Automatic annotation (TrEMBL):
One of its GO terms (molecular function) is glycosyltransferase activity. It holds the Pfam family HPAT. It is a single-pass membrane protein. Coiled coil: none annotated. Keywords: Glycosyltransferase, Membrane, Transferase, Transmembrane, Transmembrane helix. It is found in: Membrane. This is Hydroxyproline O-arabinosyltransferase-like domain-containing protein. It comes from the Eukaryota. GO terms for cellular component: membrane. Residues 13-180 form the Hydroxyproline O-arabinosyltransferase-like domain. InterPro entries: HPAT-like, HPAT/SRGT1-like.
Length: 182
């Protein structure tokens, strides 16, 4: 699958996408095996994974060895491996990041738009989670070819991130030469 992250604005400090499937506080007993109490409460382990992350190379160089070691320790621990399953690497990254604490916890505006899931809304701007909406943007709709120019804008009431995503796609398609023939 092609890249599914769009930079929405310039970034100075690291930023990462919060995932609903990463729940350090709900898994405190397991997380504590790798995130000792002297580092603070488990809530300091952000619900992030290793992608999407925007981080400077020097900070990643500090985190990467810890991430690898935590990943291997988690994989070697049967309880952790079974509990975390396919998100084990994401938990390992979250723990490694918390151990190094490079994040700005007050970043204000969002910097990354992660469009893995379809954006489905009714015309009132309400999310129609789990079913195709009256208004829709889903990258999977364009598996056989690129999206057309001038995608319709979402209805009023949808999150600003969805509006920004569609604006950015429209801006890109308007400015890429020969887009319709690609």
């Amino acid at each position: 699958m092609p890249c599914q992250h769009i930079m929405a604005s310039p970034l100075g400090l690291p930023a990462a996408f919060p995932f609903f499937c990463i729940k350090p506080e709900q898994n405190e007993k397991i997380v504590r095996k790798f995130y000792p109490e002297e580092y603070g409460p488990v809530k300091n382990v952000d619900p992030i994974g290793n992608s999407p992350v925007i981080i400077k190379k020097d900070l990643l160089e500090k985190i990467a060895p810890t991430w690898m070691n935590v990943s291997m320790k988690m994989k070697d621990d049967p309880e952790t491996d079974k509990s975390f399953g396919w998100v084990l690497e994401m938990y390992a990254y979250a723990v490694a990041s918390a151990l190094h604490a490079p994040w700005d916890l007050d970043i204000g505006k969002k910097f990354i738009i992660h469009y893995t899931y379809g954006c489905d809304y009714n015309m009132k701007g309400e999310l129609t989670y789990g079913k195709i909406g009256e208004w829709r943007f889903d990258k999977r709709s364009f598996l056989r070819g690129p999206p057309p120019k001038n995608l319709p804008m979402p209805p009023p009431g949808v999150p600003e991130s969805v509006v920004t995503l569609v604006k950015m796609v429209n801006e890109a398609t308007a400015n890429i030469p020969n887009w319709e023939t690609e």
